[in-house]
Write a structure and sequence with these properties.
about 425 residues; alpha+beta; 9-stranded mixed β-sheet; 12 helices; elongated
């Protein structure tokens, strides 16, 4: 991609109302722009990151045998009344009426819709267990949206649901999803912890939260010194009472939550199927959520410096920044840069060419702000010497690589990360 063609604009300073690092840097890097309180437009640079997160989530869910579907964002009130949540959920539920004055809501979650689907489509034990998931926009009418993407009203979420004949089957899938989530967050390049948690409004008997570790995290995680016990502070208080104060703590940002729902929804919504003996059985359920858009902000909160964002290579908007020095003053340098750019692309290297009429210092600053993991600087001096200057985002010093070796070198660097 050529930067001159990319719809983006970096800012020297963040808007005054941006409170936390991720909000400031996403605005400064030209990744998002606010449309209304808690509602954001994703610009091309930010959307590339979002889609890379989404792709990793999708690949690992598919590998676990989950089947992707897409459910409506707008949900009829009747389903929420069946589950008894229409009145319980509170003002975070955005309630709307259609032209016929029928009541609907903009879904903050999809337990009711998926349970309705299961009671219509699952007829036999031979179809079970089954895991269905979607990646879709949710809306929760937060009383005070803040922190940019971190606590937005509209957000992108992966929500999965499993159906089983019994608790033993649910436990197997729950453990599988626990392992799948660990793979996802590892591939995303994040430092995380899974903690025992409360189930909250979703319900159920057992749940774990997955937290990205960051000093700015809103949630407090507590753990025993030997590592045998890890829980959210709220769960620890419920489990250990005063003993919770013997525990050590860290800050985290919740990016995933898995639940054993049991029959909370299937009982109230009469979701049954026939077992191998022809007996009607109420299905038991699991629920597994990941905040796809929140991961983008959490990754920034975990990894940044005074210059800007430091992306893991797996979700960086581009793997490599190619910065020519005074390219527009030298035909032979421009030809060499374009030739290298084409070679990099043909080798499936995700490269951003800064072809703007800007000073090198401005180019360097913008690439560091955006957080591109690897950088090549090409100059006439380097062209004469047959070499290119290389620097990784977190390196202190530059090094020089022979032009003829650069493709192999960059591939190795990307694969190492």
């Amino acid at each position: 991609m050529k930067l001159s063609k990319l719809l983006t604009a970096t800012l020297r300073e963040a808007p005054a109302d941006a409170e936390i690092v991720s909000h400031k840097l996403m605005l400064r890097a030209g990744m998002v722009r606010q449309l209304a309180s808690g509602i954001y437009t994703w610009l091309p640079l930010g959307y590339r990151i979002l889609k890379k997160v989404e792709a990793i989530v999708r690949e690992e869910m598919n590998a676990a045998g989950a089947q992707e579907i897409l459910m409506p964002a707008i949900q009829p009130a009747e389903l929420w009344r069946e589950s008894k949540r229409w009145d319980q959920y509170g003002p975070e539920l955005l309630r709307i009426n259609d032209r016929h004055e029928r009541e609907f809501c903009f879904g903050p979650t999809h337990e009711e819709v998926i349970t309705d689907l299961a009671r219509r489509e699952v007829r036999s034990y031979k179809q079970l267990p089954i895991i269905l998931y979607q990646i879709q926009t949710k809306f929760r009418d937060e009383v005070r949206p803040r922190f940019g993407i971190m606590r937005a009203r509209e957000f992108l979420m992966k929500d999965a649901y499993s159906f089983h004949l019994n608790d033993e089957s649910l436990q197997e899938t729950y453990e599988q999803m626990y392992a799948t989530y660990s793979k996802i967050f590892t591939r995303l390049g994040l430092k995380f912890r899974a903690v025992i948690a409360d189930s909250g409004n979703i319900g159920g008997d057992k749940s774990h939260e997955f937290h990205v570790l960051a000093e700015s995290g809103e949630d407090q995680i507590v753990f025993s010194k030997n590592g045998d016990y890890v829980a959210s502070l709220e769960r620890a208080k419920a489990d250990l009472g005063e003993d919770a104060n013997a525990l050590e703590s860290a800050r985290g940002i919740e990016v995933g939550h898995i639940f054993q729902l049991g029959t909370k929804y299937s009982s109230s919504m009469k979701t049954n199927c026939l077992d191998e003996h022809g007996k009607s059985v109420t299905l038991t359920m699991g629920c597994y959520g990941i905040g796809v858009s929140r991961i983008v902000a959490a990754a920034i909160e975990q990894s940044h410096d005074e210059k800007g964002i430091i992306w893991p290579t797996s979700i960086a908007p581009f793997q490599l920044a190619l910065i020519p020095v005074n390219m527009h003053k030298s035909v032979r340098l421009r030809d060499a840069v374009i030739s290298l750019y084409d070679d990099l692309k043909s080798n499936n290297i995700d490269v951003l060419l800064d072809d703007r009429h800007e000073r090198p210092g401005v180019m360097f600053s913008d690439m560091e702000l955006i957080g591109i993991p690897h950088r090549l600087v090409f100059s006439e001096k380097g062209l004469d010497a047959g070499e290119i200057e290389y620097k990784a985002r977190q390196d202190d010093a530059n090094r020089y690589i022979q032009i003829k070796e650069i493709i192999t070198f960059i591939k190795e660097k990307i694969n190492d990360n």
